Amino acid sequence: MINNQNNNISCFIGTSEFELLDGSTRIMQELKQGDIIKTNMSYANVLCITRQQCKEIDLIKINDKLTVSKCHVVMVNGIYCFAQNCVNINSYKHDEELFVYNLVIDKYHLPIVGGIICSSLGHSIIGDVIGDSYYSTNRVINDLEHIHTDKQGYKNITNIIKDANNKTVKIE
Q1: Has domain 2-171 been given CATH number 2.60.200.30?
Q2: What is the residue-level pLDDT of the chain in tens, covering all 172 positions?
Q3: The 3-state secondary structure of the chain, one letter per residue
Q4: I want to staple 58 with a disulfide (CB 3.0 to 4.6 A). Which of 70, 76, 100, 114 is the partner?
């Protein structure tokens, strides 16, 4: 196994915007466990928020309210794709320290962020692009259960372990 602390999980930057049940919006870095966010089907409760400090990450600005890592799965025109493969996007390399985030929600698992359907962790959806052997399964949920939640409500990811094929097998 490869133990690689410089890899990042697919994620949102802190200014990505979520719609709440009451119609107001909240940016990712202000979202809290228990918030109710809009999904592709209805609304869902935020169960867990991950945070990872990183540097030198390739980011994709899809619109003014959504910037994600290049491998984050989004839905465009009804098709799942990696953010880096979307049309009309602004790709850039961020080379300063920043926090990136992701979340686990209790149902529907496809939050609408900045008006775009996005994947969340542990969604259990099977299919091309969206179906990942780790991040879309309960394996990621089980690993998150072993990570302490800090005073701000985040589960801080400090290590990503990959196999010989560069596939994530564990987060810590």
Answers
A1: no
A2: 333 334 566 799 999 999 999 999 999 999 999 999 999 999 999 999 999 998 788 899 999 999 999 889 999 989 999 999 886 677 777 777 899 999 999 999 999 999 999 999 999 999 889 998 999 999 999 999 999 999 999 999 999 999 999 889 999 9
A3: CEEECCCCCCCEECCCEEEECCCCEEEHHHCCCCCEEEECCCEEEEEEEEEEEECCEEEEEEECCEEEECCCEEEECCEEEEHHHCCCCEEEEECCCEEEEEEEECCCCCEEECCEEECCCCCCCCCCCCCCCCCCCHHHHHHHHCCCECCCCEEECCCEEECCCCCEEEEC
A4: 70
